[in-house]
Amino acid sequence: MNNNDDTESTKTYHIDIPDNLIKEWQSIVDLIARIARVRAALIMRVQNGEIEVFIASNTKNNPYKLGNKENLIDSGLYCETVIKKGKMLLVPNASKSDKWRNNPDMKYNMVCYLGFPIRLPNGDFFGTICMLDDKENNFSQDMKDFMEKMRNLIESYLNLLHLSITDQLTGLYNRTYLDIKASKEIKKANFNQKTITALLLDIDHFKKINDTFGHQIGDEVLKNFAEIMTSFLRNRDITFRLGGDEFIVLMPDTSINDAVMEADNLRLKVEGIQIRPDLKITISIGAAEWKCGESLDSWFMRVDKALYKGKHAGGNRVMS
User: Fold this and answer.
1) Which one of 31, 158, 265, 319 is most buried, by most CB atoms within 10 A?
2) Is 60 helix (H, G, I), strand (E, B) or coil?
3) Which domains occur in the chain, in start order?
4) Radius of gyration of the chain from Cα atoms?
5) What is the pLDDT along the chain (320 residues), one digit of tens a residue?
């Protein structure tokens, strides 16, 4: 992370955009390009240190294609500056400044740029919305306001999407999103011939915690555990709250042996933390690696059975 005062974090997290939303966004960039009479209007997405063309206007001579990617950091792209600064960028004519000499956009002669950052509800960057042209343009205030309103509309869509897939207590993904995301992850694993393992986690004796300390403290325990879990696990691991004190983690590109090792490290981490002066918790974890061709229900049933074995054996352990 850059420590300059005017530079913000480029931390992001992955969120799947449904097809109906993609169609809405496509109509937005097409409208922008048509009204502004520019060669290209884009929605760019930041992910895993790269920035890619997520939506591109259907305009004549638009050189940007869906899926085109560049490394974000030190790329020289206009969008890199937007993300770093976290605010609007207007470049009327980049050819008049040496600053943009190494900008990959210049290979398309895109000397003019207007862009805004797009943020997710938690403040992370989704990417940018921008327009580019091969002619100098300062753009009117009305055009800047219009672009900002389109950015705000996209962020509203993202906010509604976020609410629909997020557990409001812990901030993790919810049960509704699990089936959608898990289906996509196993298709990806199958296509890339990679492994994927699921963990099912349960806080031991959670009912007793609620009965002894009250439901408010029980909620605090759930939130604290969710924070511990997400801070400890790897960036590519995807966490969900199923409900109550049950959580599930999808671990892409991870064998059962590696997953069990990670799970046991997490178990030991939780065991060593004092949640309150008078309260410590332990967790039980079940693990199962997805078998090629296996249904989601079958896979999750095996994870559930592994967890049950651990609970039946006394808890505070990992079983597969």
Assistant:
1) 319
2) coil
3) 19-165 (3.30.450.40), 175-319 (3.30.70.270)
4) 23
5) 333 333 333 334 567 898 899 999 999 999 999 999 999 999 999 988 899 999 999 999 999 999 999 999 989 999 999 999 999 999 999 999 999 999 999 999 999 999 999 999 889 999 999 999 999 999 999 999 999 999 999 999 999 999 999 999 999 999 999 999 999 999 999 998 999 999 999 999 999 999 999 999 999 999 999 999 999 999 899 999 999 999 999 999 999 999 999 999 999 999 988 888 899 999 999 999 999 989 999 999 999 999 999 999 999 999 99
